[in-house]
Amino acid sequence: MFSIEINQDQPVSDFYHELNQLAEGLLSAEADPIAGMANLSSFLFQVLPDINWAGFYLVKGGEQLVLGPFHGQPACTRIPLGRGVCGTAASENKIQRIADVDAFSGHIACDAASQSEIVLPLVCGEQVVAVLDIDSPIKNRFTEGDEAGLCRLVELIQDNLHLSKLY
What we know:
This protein is 35% helix and 25% strand.
């Protein structure tokens, strides 16, 4: 149903334009944040090349992230804010694009196969309510182009899902 032909000659911006059009269709069909995140994590896992995990962590109690919808190997269920790549992204409200997770001080290894990672905060109002986490078994997997395309995806998530229902 949702397939993207990945052409190696296709610019990354074109790939993400197509990905985000399909994602917007998924997101506009369901406003519930958990249901939307579940479908989106599965979709990302299927269409993004060279990844081994895609999903969400939800901010709970203002002090930790709790595992949300995802696709991939079983993961860490709780991450303190400020710890690891996901906790840092959430506490600083800043994208973390990590070329080599072993070089990231305090990295939490949920899957030993993960070599690089990108984490994008999801904001409702002024508050980080979740993060989108994508891992790859390849070092340096995520580029500036990936970050730009995924930032647009985060905007779609924030515009389409009722994130205020998460807290």
